[in-house]
Write a structure and sequence with these properties.
Shape: globular
Helix content: 25-40%
Structural class: alpha+beta
Strand content: 15-25%
Number of domains: 1
CATH superfamily: Ribonuclease T2-like
Strand order of the largest sheet: 2-1-5-4
Number of helices: 8
Order of helices and strands: HEHEHHHHEHEEHE
CATH class: Alpha Beta
CATH architecture: Alpha-Beta Complex
Length: 240
């Protein structure tokens, strides 16, 4: 009569059989390729302080040479000084309602923006005077403190890709306002034609205004869009 295998051998054989069955039941990608989970991972946006008391933001990007040509042609201010090379800067981040906008709202924050805070955004708003004005008129209506308001302003500016053709041109040519809009739309997927407005002043490119939710997602804004420049072509003054 054949002797029975030891119990330890039977146990190891049973464990091996279970492991083999488990491996066979696992579905593997064809060709042995690894599963790509990045496509199904949700898009994440860095959290920004969330304002309140308004419907959306308007990020206004000013073509600095136009402002300087009309307000400081001698280059006395920091923004317009020769060699500063400012193109598109942040004019402001404006809390906006579907109709109209709030301004100069009561707040516990001081009217004056400390120089230490202002200097943190001078690279995108190159004027302490403009920084203070934007806080008093618009930032005070954001439901945020000064530091958080300017943190959101920077995040909004960094959310936008300025088209290379508008940066590299460095001004000095004529272009259609629609062409400016189309360039920004092409450079910023998700931006809608009804969510951007190009404004002009005395036949010059003045501002590009882009509408964003409180979380800095693109959105449409018919009231802002209606204020767009209607000229066929406008000048883009050169950077000095």
């Amino acid at each position: 009569m054949m002797s029975r295998p030891p119990s330890s051998v039977l146990a190891r054989s049973a464990l091996l059989l279970l492991a083999l069955l488990a491996g066979c039941s696992e579905e593997k990608p064809a060709g042995g390729a690894k599963t790509d989970t990045s496509r199904t991972a949700p898009e994440t946006r860095a959290e920004v302080p969330r304002g309140r008391g308004f419907d959306f933001y308007v990020l206004s990007l000013s073509w600095s040479p136009t402002w300087c040509a009309g307000n400081d042609s001698a280059g006395r201010t920091q923004q317009c000084r020769r060699g500063e090379n400012h193109g598109f800067i942040v004019h402001g981040l404006w809390p906006q309602n579907e109709r109209g906008y709030p301004e100069y709202c009561p707040t516990r924050e001081p009217d004056r923006v400390p120089e230490s805070l202002g200097r943190t955004v001078l690279d995108i708003i190159p004027s302490m005077g403009l920084i203070g004005h934007q806080w008093r008129k618009h930032g005070s209506c954001s439901g945020l403190g000064q530091r958080n308001y300017f943190a959101v302003t920077r995040a909004a500016f960094e959310r936008i890709d300025v088209p290379e053709e508008l940066k590299s041109q460095r001004g000095g040519g004529r272009l259609a306002p629609d062409a400016v809009e189309e360039a920004f739309i092409a450079a910023n997927p998700g931006l809608d034609r009804k969510g951007i407005a190009v404004t002009c002043e005395d036949g010059r490119l003045e501002e590009v205004r882009i509408c964003l939710t409180a979380d800095l997602a693109f959105r449409t804004c018919p009231d802002v869009d209606r204020a767009a420049c209607r000229a066929r072509t406008i000048e883009q003054p050169p950077i000095r």
